[in-house]
Amino acid sequence: MDGQLAGLARVVSDGHTICYLQDVLVRPQFQGRGIGRRLVERVLEPFAHVRQKVLLTDDEPGQAAFYAALGFAQVGAGGGGAGLRSFVRFD
User: Fold this and answer.
1) What is the rounded CA–CA span in Å between residue 60 and residue 62?
2) Domain ranges of the chain
3) What is the pTM of this model?
4) Gyration radius from the chain CA atoms
5) Between 20 and 30 A from 61 (CA), which of 43, 69, 74, 84?
6) In this predicted model, what pLDDT tens digit does every residue of 32-86 receive, in sequence order?
7) Domain 7-90: which CATH number of 2.60.120.620, 3.10.180.10, 3.40.630.30, 1.10.3720.10
């Protein structure tokens, strides 16, 4: 990777009741290597005690399968035409 940023993940949480996975980004040339999965697992570690984890993401093919593999379930019927999907996971 030669010092390049391959990806990032960001969480916003109150530390007690909800954890919002705000960003999971992996450069296209690094996708398919498990980096996204490891980023999500690592960024959620400090919030293992927080039951409700949610995220909102673009309605791109493959993202539903990616988040489902991480234990998230899609909720609702999408973003009402806004090209968004919402997911939730209860630990």
Assistant:
1) 6
2) 7-90
3) 0.87
4) 13
5) 43
6) 999 999 999 999 999 999 999 999 988 887 888 999 999 999 997 655 567 888 9
7) 3.40.630.30
